[in-house]
Design a protein that fits this description.
Helix content: 10-25%
Radius of gyration: 17 Å
Structural class: mainly beta
Low-confidence stretches: none
Mean pLDDT: 92
Shape: globular
Strand order of the largest sheet: 1-7-6-5-2-3-4
Length: 234
């Protein structure tokens, strides 16, 4: 595992009109929950043995992020806790807890947060470690990230939903290498991919021909985004 210096830079809760999307389910996002007497970042890890709660490992960046997310939640009329996302540029994006569609930028994470691993305590959960992964390898960690899509015609896009409705947003250039990596695993049809805070690309593949529900497919590693041919930072 690479040693990374992680810092969090908070900002005043700022309305966010940029790309924002999530996969449904508590296991697909980060959460701020009361843990050991304080609001703290946690992951819900959905496993065959049940759902494990994985708190962030204590550090100054995790504490600063927790304070900033709670501030944004309260700014939006909530009580401080709830879900949030971290995009591939480290932007911490906080939806209002009332479900009204408001979203706020709470700050930026430089580096990555590690989370406690209840199954292997000596190996913290690092959602951005691809050191030993190759295209098609099973993804054995929480399936957390922001959804993007590959059109059946072969173009990557982001589907934006807001008060203006829904629309497809395309990057300035298409990443042909990433498209080939996706099609190696999913040769045809539309594909949803998930991008982790560190830019790793994941998707799901059928575990067998009888498994029709994508929710029950096997998560796998696809590759890593190339910032030169990816969506611009907002």
């Amino acid at each position: 595992m690479n040693v990374v210096t992680t810092q969090f830079h908070a900002c005043h809760p700022t309305p966010w009109d940029g790309r924002y999307g999530r996969v449904m389910g508590d296991g697909a996002v980060f959460h701020l929950r009361h843990t050991d007497g304080r609001l703290w970042p946690v992951l819900d890890w959905e496993t065959d043995a049940g759902v494990a709660t994985c708190p962030a490992i204590d550090c100054a960046a995790a504490a600063g992020l927790a304070d900033a997310v709670a501030r944004a939640k309260r700014h939006a009329g909530g009580h401080g806790g709830g879900s949030f996302l971290i995009n591939e540029y480290g932007k911490v994006l906080v939806p209002a807890s009332d479900g009204g569609g408001q979203r706020f930028l709470a700050g930026r994470l430089n580096g990555r947060l590690l989370f406690e691993n209840p199954f292997l305590p000596e190996e913290p959960i690092d959602l951005d470690d691809d050191e030993t992964l190759e295209n098609g390898d099973p993804w054995k960690l929480p399936y957390v990230g922001i959804p993007y899509h590959l059109h059946r015609g072969g173009r990557i896009y982001f589907y934006q939903q807001d008060e203006q409705g829904g629309r497809s947003i395309y990057p300035p250039q298409q990443d042909l290498g990433l498209i080939r990596a996706i099609r190696h695993l999913r040769p045809y049809g539309p594909v949803r991919i998930v991008v982790t805070p560190g830019g790793l690309v994941l998707t799901k593949v059928p575990s067998d021909s009888r498994t029709l529900s994508e929710d029950r497919w096997q998560p796998v590693f696809v590759g890593v985004i190339n910032p030169k041919v990816w969506f611009e930072e907002e």
